Amino acid sequence: MTVKNCILIGAPVDSGKRRAGCLMGPDAFRTAGLAQALAGLGHKIEDLGNLTAAHHPEDQDDSPVYARHQTIGWTQSLSQAAKKAMSQGLPVFLGGDHSLSLGSVVGVANYAASVDRPLFVLWLDAHTDFHTPHTSDSGNLHGTPVGYFTGRSGFDGFPEVAHPVPEENVCMIGLRSVDTPERLALEGSAIHRHDMRDIDENGIAGPLARFLERVAAANGLLHVSLDVDFLDPSVAPAVGTTVPGGATVREGHLVCEMLHDSGLMTSLDLVELNPFLDERGRTAHLMVDLCASALGRRVFDRPTRSYN
């Protein structure tokens, strides 16, 4: 197994939606033993602590877009941290709500452009997050990162997306909550998307394998964004946007084991963990286990033994 320099970057972002609690996510991942799990696999660990948002104007409570200025501040600080960390190892962004990916993916894309390699994004999520601030009925910016980093318009005041991720370089797996504006936008896009019916009928390994083949053929960098709600809420309850019918524990591990086998993952988001909603840390521990699988931990089946 290739030893990685895993750079843990806490991103206590809680500005992308109105339900508070994700700001506690980074420390919950640490408490659940993420650093120890990865170090136990032989990786080097560098924990940079928690970022803060860049200076920003105060948000107004009556704004149709919730905490817009604060989210712009987070996008600025995260994009800078992401580009820098990519030159030093494999950054793992500990969220924080999914609006953190506005910054993490743009920063990784800027790094990819600097080394003249294409960036691919694997989006493991119940939602497409393909909105813009103008199409979102809720005004919650955690539903907009894919729209932002692929270069959709409507993000006034946000940092310029100098190197948009090509739509055909994005693969979404686990979709099961897509509203009409997102569906129409996706149908007109080149984004690869696989909802849970597709997974039910055809399995999760095939779509992922085909995407990884494209990444390898292009000598691409691969950013993986893992949302808690990719998983079924019966096994991962600590998320504010629960959608029944998600991936099982084994499907989650299979995805992560395939990522490790491919050797292609170069950065990772762990997002939408709300410890306030968890049950004795079970979701945090599962997310840590999945991260460990993506970085080399293997699961061996053992025979049942009878001791009569």
- Which class in CATH terms? Alpha Beta
Task: Tell me the β content.
Answer: 15-25%
**Strands of the largest sheet, in order across it?**
2-1-3-8-7-4-5-6
The coarse overall form would be globular
CATH superfamily descriptor: Ureohydrolase domain
Average predicted local confidence, pLDDT: 94
Assign the CATH topology. Answer: Arginase, Chain A
Query: How many helix segments?
Result: 10
Distance between the termini: 40 Å
Low-confidence stretches: 301-305
**Spatial extent as radius of gyration:** 18 Å
According to DSSP, the number of beta strands is 8
The count of domains is: 1
Briefly note the structural class of the backbone: alpha/beta
What is the topological layout?
Layout: E1 5-11, H1 25-31, H2 34-40, E2 44-50, H3 68-86, E3 90-95, H4 100-114, E4 119-124, H5 145-149, E5 170-175, H6 180-187, E6 192-195, H7 196-202, H8 205-217, E7 221-227, H9 249-262, E8 265-271, H10 282-294
Parallel strand pairs: 1-2, 1-3, 3-8, 4-5, 4-7, 5-6, 7-8
Helix pairs in contact: 3-4, 8-9, 9-10
